[in-house]
User: Which sequence fits this backbone?
């Protein structure tokens, strides 16, 4: 998954993993889920970004959400620990705002809910990660707003430039008037 560039091969890997994650016969396969999460954490940061955004992060989110309702505490802590490792590794990647809002942050919040009860020292780190991601999203939103404002101001600037040049064009129509433009008033 880390080194595959052939779309067909990556698609087959994705289909196989999806069957493990979505087929009801594998829903209670704790060791399988542990291994898949471990694999996502290991290969996710180096995988093709679209694969990571469209497949890995949405499935980690689903696994984190499902783990919130896990009744067996030992299984819950096992999955939460693997999710913590995976999210820690993936937090270093560039993640689009849409994926951040729809999958990464909700998955982190689910994991934080588990860790509040199971491992308070991890919960502190997760709260910090959630806050950091929320700030990134806010900053991107502010940057987009500033970008819109700079576009608007450049349009205003272009409008002023056009008006100035049209006035200069009117002045330059007669050579006598052009000479007068740069003379000192007496």
Assistant:
């Amino acid at each position: 998954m880390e080194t595959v560039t052939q779309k067909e091969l990556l698609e087959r890997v994705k289909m196989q993993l999806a069957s493990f994650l979505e087929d009801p016969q594998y829903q209670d396969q704790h060791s399988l889920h542990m291994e898949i999460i471990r694999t996502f954490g290991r290969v996710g940061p180096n995988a093709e970004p679209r694969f990571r955004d469209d497949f890995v992060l949405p499935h980690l989110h689903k696994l984190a959400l499902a783990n919130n309702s896990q009744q067996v505490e030992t299984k819950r802590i096992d999955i939460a620990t693997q999710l913590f490792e995976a999210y820690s590794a993936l937090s270093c990647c560039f993640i689009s705002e849409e994926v951040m809002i729809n999958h990464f942050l909700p998955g982190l919040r689910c994991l934080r809910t588990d860790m509040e009860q199971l491992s308070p020292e991890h919960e502190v780190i997760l709260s910090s990660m959630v806050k950091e991601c929320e700030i990134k999203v806010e900053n991107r939103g502010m940057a987009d707003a500033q970008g819109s404002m700079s576009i608007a101001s450049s349009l205003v600037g272009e409008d002023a430039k056009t008006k100035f040049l049209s006035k200069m064009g009117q002045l330059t129509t007669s050579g006598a008037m052009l000479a007068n433009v740069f003379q000192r008033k007496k």
Summary: The radius of gyration is 28 Å. The helical segments are 7-22, 30-43, 49-68, 73-90, 97-118, 120-171, 175-181. The mean pLDDT is 80. The first helix runs from residue 7 to 22.
